[in-house]
Specification:
It is a lipid-anchor. It is found in: Endomembrane system. GO terms for molecular function: GTP binding; GTPase activity. This is Ras-related protein rab11. The chain has about 180 residues and is of the alpha/beta class. It contains six helices and six strands, in the order βαββαβααβαβα. The chain has a six-stranded mixed β-sheet, with helices on both faces. The chain is globular. The structure holds guanosine-5'-diphosphate and magnesium ion.
Length: about 180
């Protein structure tokens, strides 16, 4: 439920990345402050919303999460249509999700608007003993591809709000 109804800007944000990296839990953590330890690949709605205030303006984020189709088929063009921001998510405990980032960037370049603002998100930073992708590797990939970068934990809420709000701030600054 939104704290306020009126808004000055509506921004469509998409989450992309391999299955089970934490896209759904990042979304529910930001929009509802909830976390689920079981992976549910289907959700009832196409997107969740959250409003934040920047410079006295109400920004309404319409956050699109996949229904799990990234696991077995490609994401449709409708998912990317009109998106002004993307969280490109990998799992710091599974190297394959980091290696697949170029594939996701390629899909973004093909399907999304060329002006889309992207933040690279290394999720599951709470799992310190299982980490296989270092923060430096994430930073290096982000730098090489001109992306913002942050590490998050949907499980303990570290940096989740910051990831979404810094992306929304960057989008707002471009309007
Ligand atoms: P999605 O397929 O990308 O939407 O990933 P989910 O959000 O469904 O998460 C997949 C699994 O990873 C679930 O079992 C989650 O509980 C777990 N998970 C997601 N984010 C985190 C996190 O930050 N830390 C930990 N420890 N587990 C997480
Ligand atoms: Mg999901």
């Amino acid at each position: 439920v939104d704290a306020f109804q009126k808004f000055d800007f509506l921004f469509k944000i998409v989450l992309i990345g391999d299955g089970a990296v934490g896209k759904t839990n990042l979304t529910t953590r930001f929009c509802q402050n909830e976390f689920n330890s079981e992976s549910k690949s289907t959700i009832g709605v196409e997107f969740a919303t959250k409003q934040i205030e920047v410079d006295g303006k109400n920004l309404k984020a319409q956050i699109w999460d996949t229904a799990g189709e990234e696991r077995y088929r490609s994401i449709t063009a409708a998912y990317y249509r009109g998106a002004v921001g993307a969280l490109l998510v990998y799992d710091v405990t599974r190297f394959s999700t980091f290696e697949n980032l170029p594939k996701w960037l390629g899909e973004l370049r093909e399907q999304a608007d060329s002006n889309i603002q992207i933040i690279l998100v290394g999720n599951k930073s709470d799992l310190v003993d299982n980490r296989v992708v270092s923060k430096e590797e994430g930073e290096k990939f982000a730098r090489a591809n001109h992306l913002s970068f942050i590490e998050t934990s949907a499980a303990n809420a570290t940096n989740v709000e910051k990831a979404f709000t810094s992306l929304l701030n960057e989008i707002y600054k471009k309007t």
